[in-house]
Amino acid sequence: MNKTALIIGGSRGIGRDIALRLAKSGFNIWLTYKSSHEAAGEVKKEIELLGVSCDLFSFDVSDFKETEAALGPRVEKQAPDMLIYNSGIARDNLLVWMTRDEWDSVLSTNLDGFYNVTRTVLFSMLAAKKGRIIVISSASGQIGQAGQVNYSASKAGLIGAAKALAREVGKKNILVNVVAPGFIETEMTEKFPKEQILPLIPANRLGRPEDVASVVNFLCTEEHMYIHGQVIGVNGGLAM
Question: Is 85 a catalytic residue?
Answer without folding.
Answer: no
